[in-house]
Design goal:
The chain is mostly helical. The chain has helices spanning about 1-15, 20-40, 45-55, 65-70, 105-120, 125-135; strands at about 60, 65, 80, 85-90. α1 (about 1-15) crosses α2 (about 20-40) and α2 runs antiparallel to α6. The termini are far apart. The model has no long low-confidence stretch (mean pLDDT about 90). The protein binds heme C.
């Protein structure tokens, strides 16, 4: 089991253009296991689905909101929190190496931010898809 885990992490590492953090690889593996439990035919996260999740606009409390509202279309640039008016540092780990480097942080914000936009928690597949999109942009 440990060997499988290790080789999957190594495989994931080499399939990325940049070097993802151990935290990201570990979390993606956790999400993949969860996704496979729900759907045994699940065979990998999808960057394009992640892009859709990131750009889809919803109406919440009478106003339009998407992930782009706070993080902007360009993940390498600063965002602005529409609720607090505070600057958000770039979400892209290519532009900001602190990003996607802490599992607790990823879980906390994905939970909160999915709720902001979709009024529910994201599924394992949705979280994996959107993290894949973010990590490659
Ligand atoms: C209302 C504003 C807002 C919206 C909308 C929003 N975010 Fe965020 N997001 C934040 C803030 C604020 C942080 C944490 C601040 C920081 O780390 O600089 C954050 C952090 C994150 C992180 C953590 C990054 C890390 O370092 O691990 C991820 C991932 C993320 N957001 C994804 C999303 C996704 C996906 C959506 C859409 C479903 C979304 N966000 C929508 C404000 C927002």
């Amino acid at each position: 089991m440990k060997k499988i885990l290790l080789s999957t992490i190594i495989l994931l590492t080499y399939s990325y253009g940049y070097e993802p953090s151990v935290a990201l690889n570990t979390y993606l593996l956790e999400l993949r296991t969860e996704a496979k439990k729900i759907n045994p035919a699940f065979n990998g996260f999808n960057l394009e689905e992640g892009r859709k999740i990131f750009f889809t606009k919803k109406i919440v409390d009478g106003g339009e909101i998407s992930c782009v509202t706070c993080h902007t279309k360009n993940l390498a640039s600063n965002g602005l929190n529409s609720k607090t008016n505070k600057i958000i540092e770039p979400l892209s780990p290519n532009a900001n190496k602190n990003r996607l480097s802490d599992i607790k942080e990823m879980k906390k914000w994905l939970k909160r931010n999915f709720n902001d936009v979709y009024k529910r928690e994201g599924t394992a597949v949705e979280k994996g898809d959107v993290l894949t999109f973010i990590s490659k942009n």
